[in-house]
Amino acid sequence: MDTKAFKRSLQQSDNYHRKGFGHETEVMGTMNTEYQSSLIQKIRENNYQWQEGDVTIKLAEAFGFCWGVERAVAMAYETRQHFPQEKIWITNEIIHNPSVNQRLLEMNVGFIEVVNGNKDFSVVEAGDVVILPAFGASVTEMQLLNDKGCTIVDTTCPWVSKVWNSVEKHKKKDYTSIIHGKYRHEETVATSSFAGTYLVVLNLKEAQYVCDYILNGGNKEEFLDKFKNAHSEGFDPDKDLVRLGIANQTTMLKSETEQIGKLFETTMLKKYGPTELNHHFMSFNTICDATQERQDAMLSLVEEDVDLMVVIGGFNSSNTTHLQEIAIEKDIPSYHIDSEKRILSGNKIEHKPLEKEIEKKEDWLPDGKIVVGITSGASTPDKVVEAVIERIFEEKNARVLV
Ligand code: SF4
User: Fold this and answer.
1) How far apart are alpha carbons 62 and 44 in whole angstroms?
2) Which member of 187, 325, 340, 395 is catalytic?
3) Could you tell me the pLDDT band of residue 116, with boundaries at 50, 70 and 90?
4) Pocket residues for ligand 1 (CB within 6 Å)?
5) What are the φ/ψ torsions at residue 230 (nearest 5 degrees)?
6) Where does the pLDDT of residue 95 fall: very low under 50, low under 70, confident under 90, or very high at 90 and above?
7) CB 323 within 8 A of CB 252
8) Ligand 1 atom with the shortest distance to the CA of 95
9) Residue located nearest, by CA, to atom 5 of ligand 1
10) What is the CATH number that goes with domain 159-287?
């Protein structure tokens, strides 16, 4: 399919909206009440630190809602206001945050269910309004909704669209897109739907494997098995790794995306020489500013004297997980939670260690004076961060009073 032509025609349709509906001011007021926090504002103004009793909180200097997420949530609120009677659906969680998604459910916005691994669009009828989330939707989904005669409200973040444009450029010039991401993540699913030939690599280790194959050859079957589900149909590593373009899931670890880009560039340089490099490698900077700022702020925070870190965000949020990785790299005890409800009374916490299932930990807050570093993913409202801080104060102070 000519995905570029399809998108262009979709954007010209009266049933397609990618800007708000003129209710911004009203919606912003509601969102501020529902998601902003006066405590967090005070902590920001106090040089990102706050002390109560034995607990000092140190906040990362960039955390929480990014503008792409704020924009998507605001557009969803506006959609409800603009279409008060219509059935409204979202093709996925609008962002990876349980409290925001719960709020949308309360506003009678339905989520398309996943049945046996596939989204069940049978519930969507002509005339319904369908919101595409901040991390986008695949071209097949857009086409299906358009064919059904739905009104589409597209909240895809412009940073994500920028990556789609990159892979369109690769496709046009017959380059294979190497996408640094998680092949199952909705954003990468959407990005690969716009790509021609593609291969998704998860990390530097996988990228190294591909580069070794480019330079030294290898076992094709093993290669295809290793990247099962992570490449375009009919992908052939012997033919499709000759001209490469780099793209990324916008929420991956920035340093790793850069290293992967460099690794492929050096590999193609070794293989084809400096004069031919431009015919074999292309790269555009598509790392999103917000992801970058949050990761940089976390890198500074872990250099400070903190006893433990609390990382707040949805358990399926990629950018939150990467913040957690930074703390782990530094050997700082770190707890990924999705809301204050995970902090249980009696000095217990339910948290999700990296790449493991949720588990309970006892005595997680050490005795005496402690410094707790806090950050949150791009989908987490300040209100949730405030609630977590309040719970930590409550727990520690309760123990002091005993
Ligand atoms: S993290 Fe970046 S790409 Fe993702 S929604 Fe926010 S601004 Fe957009």
Assistant:
1) 10
2) 187
3) confident
4) 66-69, 134, 157, 159-160, 250-251, 288, 290-291, 319, 378
5) -115, 20
6) confident
7) no
8) 5
9) 68
10) 3.40.1010.20
Pick one of 3.20.20.80, 3.40.50.11270, 3.40.50.11030, 1.10.8.60 as the CATH number of 67-157.
3.40.50.11270
Is the pLDDT score of 402 beyond 60?
no
- From the list 152, 156, 150, 121, the residue with the least C-alpha distance to 136 is 156
Mark whether 187 is an active-site residue.
Answer: yes
pLDDT at 109: 95
CATH of domain 37-66+290-401: 3.40.1010.20
Token digits of residue 291: 């992801």
Q: Which residues contact 263 (CB under 8 A, 6 or more apart)?
A: 204, 207, 208, 211
Task: List CB contacts of 239: < 8 A, sequence separation 6 or more.
Answer: none
Question: Whose CA is closest to atom 7 on ligand 1?
Answer: 68
- The pLDDT of 157-168, averaged and rounded, is 95
- Tokens (6 digits) for 73: 């949530």
Point out the ligand 1 atom lying closest to the alpha carbon of residue 288: 2
* Nearest-angstrom CA–CA distance, 345 and 395: 7
The model's confidence at residue 400, banded by pLDDT at 50, 70 and 90, is low
Average pLDDT over residues 287-303: 92
Residue pLDDT, tens place only, 222-234:
999 999 999 999 9
Residue 248 Cα to ligand 1 midpoint, Å, equals: 12
Counting ligand 1 atoms within 8 A of each CB, the residue from 63, 65, 69 with the most, and so the one to mutate, is: 69
| Whether the predicted model's global pTM rises above the 0.85 cut | yes
